Amino acid sequence: MPPKKKTKKTTKKKPEKSYNDLEEKYRRSILDIAILQDHIALQCESVIKVQSDRVDLRRRMRDMEQKLQHERQDHRDVNSDLSRQYKTMQTELTSKVKRLEKEVSQLKEELAMCQEDLGKEKRERVQMEREKDATIDDLQHKLDNMETDYEKVLHDTLDSLTSQLSVARQRWEDKSTTLHQNYKGLLSEFGLNALDI
Q1: CB 118 within 8 A of CB 126
Q2: Fewer Cβ in 10 A, N or C end of the chain?
Q3: What sign results for the dihedral spanned by CA atoms 66, 68, 71, 72?
Q4: Do 165 and 157 form a contact (C-beta atoms < 8 A)?
Q5: C-alpha dist (Å) from residue 132 to 122, 128, 139, 197
Q6: Distance separating alpha carbons of residues 147 and 150, to the nearest angstrom
Q7: Distance between CA 101 and CA 94 in Å, rounded?
Q8: pLDDT tens across 120-160, in order?
Q9: How far is the C-alpha of 38 from the C-alpha of 51, rounded, in Å?
């Protein structure tokens, strides 16, 4: 179903009402103008602020570009100085390496000579030890022979001494027995008993 159409009631406006409407519209217009002026003023302030910010940003950008330029120059200077130092160090290091290689070569030669001398000394020491061991063995053998000879001489001497002592003892015993008998006889002549004395 189609909607019902509203019927407009036509009423005639009074001239007083239309004056009020006009005044109302005027006040609204003034209000709108004031709002628009405020809006324009805000926009102007924003534009001024934006322009000020733009000027400030341009100034800061120039400062940053100058700073960047200085830093690039400093970087180039530092880079140049580091390159120079690197080349100097590389030259010094190369000369030091050559000098150390020369020293190593000399030390290797000295080491070879020392090892040769050491081998010779070792061979001589081994030869001396062999000769010393041979001399010691020879002396030990002579000492053993001398010991055996001395032992034999000592035994022979002791045997001879023992037999001589035995003979001497026998003689002394015989002599002492004879002397004893003589003294006993003398004592008994005097009337003394030898066992009492």
Answers
A1: no
A2: N
A3: negative
A4: no
A5: 15, 6, 10, 73
A6: 5
A7: 10
A8: 999 999 999 999 999 999 999 999 999 999 889 989 898 99
A9: 19
